[in-house]
Amino acid sequence: MTPIESAADPAEAVTLPFHPQELTVRQLLASHVAVLDELLRRGIVRTRNSPLGDLAETIALRAYGGTLAPNSEKSYDLTTHQGRRTQVKARLVDPSDRRSQNFSAFRSFDFDDALFLLFDATSYDLIWARVLTAEATRAIGRRVEHTNSSAIVIRNVAAAGIDVTTTVRAAYGSIDASPINE
């Protein structure tokens, strides 16, 4: 059992039924999915999106190298070694859900490339990855006036740009390796 040390009152410390430090990143993510499923069932949370964004940016950094942008940067998430400013968008989907779904909204197109990653919501397995230019991304978007943004539908991305699934999957496969130098 592992106590969580961050509780203000030691009497309120939660004891975990496992040792997270002994698990791989993929095992931790699978555990997270199970916890989210239970929180969804209990009506505590409404989505499965956390920690998806940070994971996607880490995978992009491992796949393409470069430097992650500060969290406050609104237009892009990564500057590659080639100087390409890349916006990273990720989405979890239930493969059995056939409804139309979107990636998070674009409010700026001040980037060179958009890297779209689609993950299975039940396992965090990468389904596919595609890169589109800013122009191609804008072209497949649908303007949403009330949010001053552009909505990008998953099925439109799946049919556009360049398939980089093999490259991104290899980077994801090495997620437990030692940290890379930016």
List keywords for this structure.
26% strand; 182 residues; six-stranded mixed β-sheet; 5 helices; PvuII Endonuclease, Chain A; alpha+beta; three-stranded antiparallel β-sheet; globular; 2 domains; disordered N terminus
Can you tell me about this structure?
The strands form 3 sheets. A 6-stranded mixed beta sheet has the order 3-4-5-7-8-11. It has a 3-stranded antiparallel beta sheet with strand order 6-10-9. A two-stranded antiparallel sheet has the order 1-2. Helix 2 crosses helix 5 (165-173). It is 28% helix and 26% strand. The chain has helices at 25-41, 52-64, 134-140, 154-158, 165-173; strands at residues 2-3, 15-16, 67-68, 78-79, 85-93, 102-106, 113-120, 126-133, 142-144, 149-153, 162-163. Strand 4 and strand 5 (85-93) form a beta hairpin. It has 182 residues and is of the alpha+beta class. The chain is built from 5 helices and 11 strands. The protein has 2 domains: 2-41, no CATH class; 52-173, PVUII Endonuclease, subunit A (PvuII Endonuclease, Chain A, 3-Layer(aba) Sandwich), CATH 3.40.210.10.
Name the CATH architecture of the largest domain: 3-Layer(aba) Sandwich
Supply the helix-strand structural class.
alpha+beta
What spatial order of strands do you see in the largest sheet? 3-4-5-7-8-11
Characterize the biggest β-sheet: 6 strands, mixed
Mean pLDDT: 88
The fold-level CATH name of the largest domain is PvuII Endonuclease, Chain A
Percent helix, as a range, is 25-40%
**The CATH C-level class name of the largest domain:** Alpha Beta
Number of helical regions: 5
For CATH, the homologous superfamily of the largest domain is named as PVUII Endonuclease, subunit A
User: Which band does the percent of strand residues land in?
Assistant: 25-35%
End-to-end separation in angstroms reads 35 Å
The number of strands is 11
